[in-house]
TrEMBL record:
Gene it is expressed from: ruvA
SMART domains with a match to the protein in the record: HhH1 (SM00278)
Assembly and oligomerization: Homotetramer. Forms an RuvA(8)-RuvB(12)-Holliday junction (HJ) complex. HJ DNA is sandwiched between 2 RuvA tetramers; dsDNA enters through RuvA and exits via RuvB. An RuvB hexamer assembles on each DNA strand where it exits the tetramer. Each RuvB hexamer is contacted by two RuvA subunits (via domain III) on 2 adjacent RuvB subunits; this complex drives branch migration. In the full resolvosome a probable DNA-RuvA(4)-RuvB(12)-RuvC(2) complex forms which resolves the HJ.
NCBIfam families: ruvA
Entry's localization field: Cytoplasm
Protein name: Holliday junction branch migration complex subunit RuvA
Gene Ontology MF: a single term: DNA helicase activity
Top-level taxonomic group: Bacteria
The keyword DNA-binding is assigned to this record: yes
Species for this entry: Halobacillus naozhouensis
InterPro entries hit by this protein: DNA_helicase_Holl-junc_RuvA_I (IPR013849), Hlx-hairpin-Hlx_DNA-bd_motif (IPR003583), NA-bd_OB-fold (IPR012340), RuvA (IPR000085), RuvA_2-like (IPR010994), RuvA_C (IPR011114), RuvA_C_sf (IPR036267)
Amino acid sequence: MITYVKGLLTTVEDDSVTIETQGVGYEILCANPLHFQSERHKEVKVHTYHYIREDQQLLFGFKKKEDKLLFAKLLNVSGIGPKGALAILGTVSVPEFVSAIEQEDEKYLTRFPGVGKKTARQMILDLKGKLIVWLPEEENEDSLFYQEDTAAKDKRVHIEEALEALKALGYSDRELKTVHSELVKSKQGQVDDLVRKGLQLLMKS
């Protein structure tokens, strides 16, 4: 799985950017490629989601890691594909989107391209309570999540990244659920270590 690409930003197109690293140019689809315009011909680091299907492999890119993680969450919602997820991220900030999910604001969610009432309700059902890591702290002052220390918060994010990496390797959501609790208990904190731990657990099951 390609988790990020770091190199020379050579091209900015309407829907993608190209980054050259070690003589290889990576085309990366983005929600707002023009956000990278000021960094043309400079070295940049883009967080990427490696989308793999039988008939295609695509790289989707994001300036912020939280955008990438939300993109991955959206892909798990029935009715939301990569284009739809990218369109959402191109029109709203992550905290605003999460706030709408937590408040069950269907009217707000149906403003996004291709999102009707049924899909909005599905997003709320699938995502509510799972994204509060990206809400401003003052909106969650009563939440247990914000009583955790920084290390605990970081581990939550790292576990999500590790699970997405394992999913990209072909493991199903059902299989990943069996190892999630073990990863939470694990003393491992870095993404690579958590991926290795997850693979060990999956191979034993």
